[in-house]
């Protein structure tokens, strides 16, 4: 694992023009979450810019293998590889950053006490993993394809199959969160959360294409999801949509 990490410095302020609207009534919980007063932007402090930081040595050998990392017994579901690179706005690799993922199991249920969906829990699947990007910015996870699931938004809304991503910079104050969707899923266009993104190009940045070159015959398909931190090709993030 690399010992290097992104250079420290002031956190880059948000470009509010890049955000989806905070108030989108078709996404029901945005009605109560949307700010009611003018936003105030504060500069970053030295503590936020430099730490607290994660230790590269704390990752275990199965941390990026969601099929085995909970009990050591294989999880149920379609095996897939999710891989890509973390890049800056000049397509240069960003090494040494912590990438975390979490997801529902193959039936569309999370291992969470508040998830009341009728799909069964998989006793061998926790649904979370982490990896540190290599010198060329690459990361890789072995997991199962998550299932779609209903959610109490409108009468019959379903979340598309998706995986949540978190990317850390030099410290926990530099964290970006987004979701990855799967090429060809018809629920993407129907999802109220996806539809808060105002452009088709923006949605496309969140959809991972099938990558048969990285698939393993008779074992698993692969999907490629590059994460671009800034610039016109940047990945859209839920908490800092202008990029790191």
From TrEMBL:
Keyword Oxidoreductase: yes
Enzyme superclass (EC): oxidoreductase
Keywords: Dioxygenase, Oxidoreductase
Secretion signal span: none
Domain Intradiol ring-cleavage dioxygenases, first and last residues per copy: 50-231
Annotated GO MF terms: ferric iron binding; protocatechuate 3,4-dioxygenase activity
GO biological process: 3,4-dihydroxybenzoate catabolic process
EC number, as in UniProt: 1.13.11.3
Domain Protocatechuate 3,4-dioxygenase beta subunit N-terminal: 14-42
Family classification: Belongs to the intradiol ring-cleavage dioxygenase family.
NCBIfam families with a match to the protein in the record: protocat_beta
Entry protein name: Protocatechuate 3,4-dioxygenase subunit beta
Organism in which the protein naturally occurs: Fertoeibacter niger
């Amino acid at each position: 694992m690399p010992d290097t990490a992104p250079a420290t410095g002031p956190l880059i302020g948000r470009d509010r023009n890049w955000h989806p609207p905070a108030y989108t009534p078709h996404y029901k919980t945005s009605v109560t979450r949307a700010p009611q007063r003018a936003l105030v932007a504060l500069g970053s402090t030295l503590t936020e810019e430099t730490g607290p930081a994660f230790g590269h040595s704390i990752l275990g050998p199965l941390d990026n293998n969601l099929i085995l990392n909970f009990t050591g017994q294989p999880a149920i579901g379609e095996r897939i590889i999710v891989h890509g690179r973390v890049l800056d706005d000049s397509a240069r690799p960003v090494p040494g950053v912590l990438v975390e993922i979490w997801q529902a199991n193959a039936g569309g249920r999370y291992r969470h006490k508040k998830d009341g969906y009728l799909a069964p829990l998989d006793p061998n699947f926790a649904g979370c993993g982490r990896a540190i990007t290599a010198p060329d910015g690459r990361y890789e996870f072995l997991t199962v394809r998550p299932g779609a699931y209903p959610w109490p938004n409108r009468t019959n809304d379903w979340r598309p199959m998706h995986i949540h991503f978190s990317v850390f910079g030099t410290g926990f104050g530099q964290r970006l969160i987004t979701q990855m969707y799967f090429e060809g899923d018809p629920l993407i266009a129907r999802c109220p959360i996806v539809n808060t993104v105002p452009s088709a190009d923006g949605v496309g940045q969140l959809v991972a294409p099938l990558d048969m070159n990285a698939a393993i015959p008779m074992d698993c398909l692969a999907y490629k999801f590059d994460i671009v931190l800034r610039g016109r090709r940047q990945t859209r993030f839920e908490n800092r949509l202008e990029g790191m």
